[in-house]
């Protein structure tokens, strides 16, 4: 099924009775050329680009629960390419370019909104750091505008510019940044992969990885064994657990990150606003809810829920930045499991087992990376060579220390990234 304005109009006038399922519900086959473990945004995009870019169609995506039930449906939806270090900068730039053509490519409305992102700064030193970051972004081919205090005030007049601890001195404006509808991204990639012959198998938990003579031969699942020539581990916060099935210990800790949404309000916040000193970020969804988040909960966990002290911290940061939101009612909160690496940058690489590949360690960068992650992981699995945009995301950098990418300069403690 292809979407069009005429199709939407016709279905609206006929009670929406003509829509068909967006993807099949197949039983797993005995063998595939490639198996992707994980049916989130990264796993689905990997399968899609394996089929679209490399002509591989005998592929299965195995998901323990339902498609899009993990982090891709539990995030604050921010899309940006304002990274600084070589290795990260070109990757997220590549991802943003894919975002900009994604709806046309998938023929699916992922509600990508380039409303602009503003990172606030609060001192002369931070201004210098953001100026340097902005220059790096421009050199990469992306966009950045350094705003002074009055420039921020014109765009964000509702902020508290006189707060005593962190007075606002200005901001770095990234006009092409914005948001997208998180679950629609998963649905669009699922629909695109299915239309190219990929089997999307839900309620199929991987319980083991079969290895013979140093080579992967398949996986064990709750729905029986499946043979495969190549297997990709793309499971976000569960990366350490799944890799352990192959005898691997990853340099990853899993932490909870909470997010929140308020009742629907009239349009009030036009941009994405990031308050780094309070570790608070906020935007307004198309339904009117204020969507915001903050810091990790700072303890390792596999639970998709968080603690009340962090809820209080995030609310305090929001009130410090923009007291106007104080009367908004918070409807719900949720937690995603963040797979945190020691340098805060991801891993897309082959493992020590032939035919076994890893896509993990996305820290805070997972949602915005969905298109490029799938593109680069598909290239790696199809060709056994890293894509140039992800050439720095090597697993062995944590063993030898060469090529570490500490984007925030916070050292080797997982939860600080």
Task: Output the keywords.
D-Amino Acid Oxidase, Chain A, domain 2; alpha/beta; eight-stranded mixed β-sheet; FAD/NAD(P)-binding domain; 2 domains
In a few lines, what is going on in this structure?
By secondary structure, this protein is α/β, with parallel strands linked by helices.
Judging from the principal axes of the Cα atoms, what is the shape? globular
Rg from Cα = 21 Å
Low-confidence blocks of residues: none
Q: Tell me the name of the CATH homologous superfamily of the largest domain.
A: FAD/NAD(P)-binding domain
Average residue-wise pLDDT: 95
Strand content: 25-35%
What does this structure look like?
This protein has 417 residues and is α/β, with parallel strands linked by helices. It has helices at 5-13, 41-54, 89-100, 102-106, 124-140, 149-155, 182-195, 239-244, 308-321, 370-383, 397-400; strands spanning 31-37, 59-62, 78-79, 117-121, 145-148, 170-174, 178-179, 199-201, 206-212, 215-221, 226-233, 253-264, 272-275, 280-284, 289-300, 330-340, 347-350, 356-360. Strands 1, 2, 8, 9, 10, 11, 17 and 18 form an 8-stranded mixed sheet that branches. An 8-stranded mixed sheet has the order 5-6-4-13-14-15-12-16. Strands 3-7 form a two-stranded antiparallel ribbon. The radius of gyration is 21 Å and the shape is globular. It starts with a helix and ends in a 17-residue tail after the last helix.
